C-alpha cells in the first residue's frame, strides 16, 4: 500500500468524520440562511460555535506540520482528514484549516521573524483573525510571478507600497487583519530576485477595496474575493518577510502545500457529488424505470468512481513525496495533481448536475456552487497550461 494507516490517523479520521456528521452538515442550511437574511459580510454565529467545539476536541490546525505547535501531521497523514473537511464548503474553516490562512501561516512559520510570528502567526493559529495573500494583478499575466508590478520602495525606516491586486481571497472578510503583499523592491536585480513579500496590516491607510469579485456569479461571502488598491501604503521596514529579493522563493515555498491542500479538499467535493448522483439516480424515474437502471447513467457512475480513485492515489503519491524529498523535488507530482484533480472533480460534479436535472443547476443542491469553485481552482495557484508545461519539461529532461 502507498500508506500504512497509522492508529493515530485512523482515530483522527473517525473523529473528523463524526464531527462533520454531528455539527458541520447540519450547520450548512443554518449558515446559508444567515447569508440570505443578514448582512452577507458577517460571520454566522454558528461558525464560531463550531470552531470552539473543534478546538476543544483537538481537531485544530491539523495541517500544521510543526509538532511543537499542533499535532505535527505529515502531508500524507493530513490528506484523508483534509478530504473529509473538503466535503463541505464550510468544513475547512471549522477546523482552522482553510485557505488562504493555511498557506499564510506556513509562510510565517518557515520565513517569518520571531516578532512577525508572535504578532500574526499566533492569532491566526488561534482562529482569532483572518489573512490574505496578495499576488495576482489585473494588469499583468500573474501566472508568471515575475510579472508583478506593485512597487515596494524603501523610504527610511519604512517601505511604501503602490499597486493593484485582485482575486484576493478574504479581501472582504470582516476578520481580515493582515495581508501578505508581493511586489518589486528592485526592478534591476536578477529576474527572480526583484520581488519581495511584506506584511501589511489590513487597516493601514491607503488600502482601498475597489470592488468585490464574483466567481460565476457567486460572491463567496463572507470571505469573498476582492480587488484592492494600494496607494502610498506605508509600513515599517521590519515587516519585510525574510529579506529583500526573497519574494519569489517564498511564493514557490508557499504554493506547494497550498496546491496539494486544494486537491485534497477537491477529492472530498467529488466524493460528495458522486454520493448525490447515486442517491438521485436511485430516487427518480424516467421512461418507466429508475434513472439508475439506465445504462448511460451507470456508465457515468462507474467512470466517476474510477476517476476519483485514480486522482486520490496521485494526491497521496504527491503527499508522500513531499514528506520524503520536499516540495521542490515533488514539483512534477504537485503539477500533475493540480491539473488532474480539478478537472476530475469538475467532470464528476457536472455529471451529478446532469442527473439532478433542472435542480442541479439551481442553488438547491449545492452542485452549481461546487462546480463554480472547482472550475476556479483550475486557474487559482496557476492555470492548467502552466502546470502542464512544467510536467512536460521535467519529463523531457529524462531523455537529454
Structural overview:
- The chain is α+β, with helices and mostly antiparallel strands.
- The chain has 3 domains: 7-100, Butyryl-Coa Dehydrogenase, subunit A, domain 1 (Orthogonal Bundle); 130-241, Butyryl-CoA Dehydrogenase, subunit A, domain 2 (Beta Barrel), CATH 2.40.110.10; 248-399, Butyryl-CoA Dehydrogenase, subunit A, domain 3.
- It is built from 11 helices and 9 strands.
- The protein has helices spanning 7-37, 45-56, 75-86, 91-94, 101-111, 114-125, 247-283, 295-325, 331-355, 367-376, 384-396, and strands spanning 130-134, 151-155, 158-169, 176-184, 195-201, 207-213, 225-236, 285-286, 289-290.
- A hairpin with a 2-residue loop joins strand 2 and strand 3 (158-169).
- Helix 3 packs across helix 7 and helix 7 runs parallel beside helix 9 (331-355).
- It is globular, with a radius of gyration of 21 Å.
- The two termini are 33 Å apart.
Keywords for this entry:
400 residues, alpha+beta, Butyryl-Coa Dehydrogenase, subunit A, domain 1, Butyryl-CoA Dehydrogenase, subunit A, domain 2, Butyryl-CoA Dehydrogenase, subunit A, domain 3, 3 domains, four-stranded antiparallel beta sheet, three-stranded mixed beta sheet, 11 helices, 15% strand
Poorly predicted runs are: none
Largest sheet: 4 strands, antiparallel
What's the tally of helices? 11
Structural class from helices and strands? alpha+beta
Output the helix-strand order: HHHHHHEEEEEEEHEEHHHH
Please write the CATH class name of the largest domain.
Mainly Alpha
Beta-strand residue fraction: 15-25%
CATH superfamily heading of the largest domain:
Butyryl-CoA Dehydrogenase, subunit A, domain 3
**Biggest sheet strand line-up:** 2-3-7-6
First and last CA, distance:
33 Å
Task: Please state the average pLDDT score.
Answer: 95
> From the 3D coordinates, which CATH architecture of the largest domain would you assign?
Up-down Bundle
Give the total of domains.
3
Rg, alpha carbons: 21 Å
The rough form would be described as: globular
Share in helix = 40-55%
Number of strands: 9
**CATH fold field value of the largest domain:** Butyryl-CoA Dehydrogenase, subunit A, domain 3
